[in-house]
UniProtKB/TrEMBL annotation, chains A, B:
The keyword Transcription regulation is annotated on this UniProt entry: yes
Protein name: Redox-sensing transcriptional regulator QorR
Species assigned in the record: Kibdelosporangium persicum
InterPro entries: HTH_HxlR, WH-like_DNA-bd_sf, WH_DNA-bd_sf
UniProt KW Ribonucleoprotein keyword: no
Alphabetical list of Gene3D superfamilies matching this protein: Winged helix-like DNA-binding domain superfamily/Winged helix DNA-binding domain (1.10.10.10)
SUPFAM superfamilies given in the database record: Winged helix' DNA-binding domain (SSF46785)
Length: 127, 127
DNA sequence: CAGGATCCCCAATGATACTG
DNA sequence: CAGTATCATTGGGGATCCTG
């Protein structure tokens, strides 16, 4: 069971911020991509993750690095070369996130069915 | 392996939206709370989840209901009584999300350590 | 009690340009 | 290449009031 001192349901517990980094829009994609590929450069991540801006990628990577999820390795060469990979802690987090991805992929038909039925129910009751 | 037709790394794939609902700020808290408690009323959820507004709770619950994650049962009484619980699909999702919560709780010391070290590294290099 | 409707605003996000 | 700095935008999100 979880420590009583770390309560993510408490608005002011710092764990809430970490949870938000882990589950953030770009954070989840970065984690899963790094879990699959092992190590990627900044520009590789940018290309792999559709729609992410440089700013958001850099910002999200920094948050994840600070939380100990992502490892950042700078190779002192010109032009610059920076590698990103998951820490041990990050791998554990990424695996959980990846479970969500698999769930969506594996049971996609159920998601679509639920959405269609919901929309039909809504459309059927004007007021 | 996952269907090639469901690619969350593709900006325009509808699965991206579902992933964002599942991992949204309030979505993760709702899922875990319902996983723990089974069934809760609107006001119970509101009280259980620190800092959520009525608007965001209603809005997030609707998104999760549409995706087939949350089951909404209305009891036709006065005053109104509405129960929320997880569907089978929702339970699978919630378990994955709960893994993240446990990770944060169990390894919180590592998160804090990483943050402190990151901040020290930053402070050590003025420019 | 469960939410719908409104108003409002700040912060997250993105586009662009620039630098080591 | 790997970012940082700046600026513009908007819509997420909250507060409030109202209703079945």
């Amino acid at each position: 069971m979880e420590s009583a001192l770390v309560d993510v349901f408490d608005m002011n517990c710092p764990s809430r911020a970490v949870m938000e980094h882990l589950s953030s829009r770009w954070g989840v994609l970065i984690q899963v991509m790094l879990l699959r590929e092992g190590t990627l450069r900044f520009s590789e991540l940018r290309r792999a993750i559709g729609g992410v801006s440089e700013k958001m990628l850099a910002q999200t990577l920094q948050a994840l690095e600070r939380d100990g999820i992502v490892r950042r390795v700078v190779h002192p060469v010109i032009p610059p070369h920076v590698d990103y990979s998951l820490t041990d802690l990050g791998e554990a987090a990424a695996k959980a996130v990846n479970t969500l991805f698999d769930l969506i992929g594996d049971r996609w038909a159920e998601f679509e069915k639920a959405q269609v039925e919901y929309d039909q129910r809504k459309a059927a009751q004007p007021l």
